[in-house]
Amino acid sequence: MEKKNNDIRLYNVLFPFWMLLLFPQMWAIVLPGNFIIDSLVLIISMFALKMTEKKRFYKRHIFQIWGFGMLSDIIGAAYMFLLMWAFEVGSMGDELYLTIPALIISAVLIFVLNYFVTFRKSDKVLRLKLALTFAIVTAPYTFLIPSSWLY
After folding, report:
1. Per the structure, how many domains does the chain have?
2. Is 12 within a domain?
3. Half-sphere exposure of 103 toward its Cβ, with a 13 Å CA cutoff?
4. Exposure check for the chain: N or C terminus, fewer CB within 10 A?
5. Has residue 15 been placed in a domain?
6. d(CA 135, CA 18)
7. 14: closest CA among 109, 98, 86, 82?
8. Tens digit of pLDDT per residue, the chain (151 long)?
9. How would you label 26-65 residue by residue, b for 16+ Cβ within 10 Å and e otherwise?
10. d(Cα 56, Cα 3) in Å, to the nearest integer?
11. What dihedral do alpha carbons 10, 68, 132, 108 form, nearest 10°?
12. Pairwise CA distance, residues 36 & 33, whole Å
């Protein structure tokens, strides 16, 4: 007779979200780290797009960009958790069918929130370029790091 193992193992929940739950002190690294990355992307984008009043634009938008980016990453990670826990999908490894949709969900949310909320007062061409830049550059690519690398 075979013995059934009913242990639930979370093999494919990816850094940083899972690490943030295990080690809450990591928030002290992730929050400012994401802020710095968002700041660099915004500053480089403003120079690349030859924008005027860079300092004013930065101050007006950086906290919304950062907040929407964090929210989008959390929603993408929640999608992975929902599939894993509610539907018992992906408990045996590091499957891309969980991480790629989560990455896409986060990237689309970053685009939509920045396009329709953060940059709503900018002209359409500028807000499209900025929203696309943030969606592509700041998407949570760390979702693609297999959790098996972490243990």
Report:
1. 1
2. no
3. 20
4. N
5. no
6. 22
7. 98
8. 444 444 444 333 334 455 666 566 777 888 899 999 999 999 999 999 999 999 999 999 999 999 999 999 989 988 888 887 777 776 434 678 888 898 999 999 999 999 999 999 999 999 999 999 999 999 998 888 776 665 5
9. beeebeeebbeebeebbeebbeeeeeeeeeebeeebbeeb
10. 65
11. 50
12. 5
Write the CA distances from 97 to 79, 116, 117, 123, integer angstroms: 12, 29, 30, 37
pLDDT for 105: 96
Matching residue, tokens 């059934």: 4
**What is the reported pLDDT for 98?**
81
**Amino acid making up residue 105:** I
Q: Which residue has the tokens 């969606």?
A: 135
Spatial separation of the C-alpha atoms in residues 106 and 72, rounded to whole Å = 5
- Asked whether residue 108 is domain-assigned, the answer is yes
- In angstroms, the CA 89 to CA 22 distance is 21
The verdict on residue 18 lying in a domain is no
